[in-house]
Structures are given as structure tokens and as C-alpha cells.
Amino acid sequence: MNDGLKILLVDDDKVMLFLHDTFLKRSGIACDTVLCYNGREALDYLDTNQALETTFLVLLDINMPVMNGWEFLGAIRDKPYLPKVLIVMVSSATEESEKARAFAFGQVIDYQQKPLTVDTCRRIIGSDKLRGFFDNVVLK
């Protein structure tokens, strides 16, 4: 179990949440995973748990009701815990303009197509920004 990292899966599609959670576990990630059905739930979770000595990896969908991914990115911009938040956008959008818009936010470290797979989860945990959190993960 990795106490230094908590993963938030943010998507309004319950099937996607289940799939992504399953693929994260199959890729060797043994972190606590929090499921959020929109950006507001994720924001409330971060606001409530910001005192933890934890880095938060947020796998964030774009199109959701209540608060979408763009609104979430705007809402955390001035939060004191912003340096502890790393975001991977997970979207069905394939337009380069969407990717460029996502990477304009400093906390966005990656942009992946839906649905995630075991291979894309392994690429995410292998990123330089997450180095150290998954050193004990054996990629099969």
C-alpha cells in the first residue's frame, strides 16, 4: 500500500469508474482509490482531506454534470493544496485543441483516451512526475 499517494477517479460513468479502478489494480497499483462522480465531489474530497501528507493523483474526465473537468481545474487553481495534486485527463475527446487546453494547466501531467487499459495505467505510473511512488510495482 502506498501511503504517500491517493488516487481519485473522477467520472460520471459508473462503468468507466469500475473499469478504470480494475485496470489500475491489475497494473500493480496498490493505492487507496476514491471514486467521485463529478468534479464537485472530487473538490469536496480534496478540501476535506488537504491536511493529509499525501499527494493526490486525479484521473479526471472532462464532460460531467454538476462540475466538469475544466471547471474542476479552474476551481483548484487557487487552493493551498494545488502543489500536491497531479492530474491525468481521461477523455473520449481526441481533438488536439482539447489536449492543448488541458496541458495549459500546470497540474496536468498526462492526457489519455477513454477507456484506460492496463497498458495506459502502466504508462501513467511510469511517468517522471510519479517516480518514487511506484518503485515497488513490478510490471509484468
UniProtKB/TrEMBL annotation:
It comes from the Bacteria. Residues 6-129 form the Response regulatory domain. GO terms for biological process: phosphorelay signal transduction system. The keyword Phosphoprotein applies. InterPro entries: CheY-like_superfamily, Sig_transdc_resp-reg_receiver, TCS_response_regulator. The keyword Lipoprotein does not apply. The modification 4-aspartylphosphate is found at D61. Keywords: Phosphoprotein. This is Response regulator receiver domain-containing protein. It comes from Dyadobacter soli.
